[in-house]
Design goal:
Elements lengths: L1 H5 L13 H48 L4 H40 L8
Length: about 120
């Protein structure tokens, strides 16, 4: 018996145990959702930056309307456009925030972390 233990070979390929193939699939799914979560997080930040930039532009145009009364009407229109873009970008950021949360829930589900809410 001692000789049999000495001649134990390490193989490059191992035999799969029951359920091991399923774990590989779950890990791939979890990685997919992790990547999706990261993607939505990035787009959420883009939306936030867009909202901030558009809001700053709207404030700039509001200032220009006061400073340049001859073209005040044009500046007020551009201020409204900037404000609308800020609201739209904020909505996009909120949408991506919810998409990110959904991807995180799917990742946790794929990893087997289930949250059972009682209420």
């Amino acid at each position: 018996m001692a000789e049999e233990e000495k001649h134990h070979h390490h193989h490059l390929f191992h035999h799969k145990k029951e359920g091991e193939e399923e774990n590989i699939v779950d890990e791939a799914a979890a990685h997919k959702y992790e990547k999706e979560e990261k993607h939505h997080k990035h787009l959420e930040k883009v939306g936030e930056l867009g909202a901030a930039a558009a809001g700053a532009y709207a404030l700039h145009e509001k200032h220009e309307a006061k400073k340049d009364p001859e073209h005040a009407h044009r500046h007020k229109i551009e201020e409204e456009i900037g404000a609308s873009l800020a609201v739209g970008s904020g909505g996009f950021a909120l949408h991506e925030h919810h998409e990110k949360k959904d991807a995180k829930k799917e990742e946790e589900k794929a990893e087997g972390k289930h949250h059972h809410h009682l209420f």
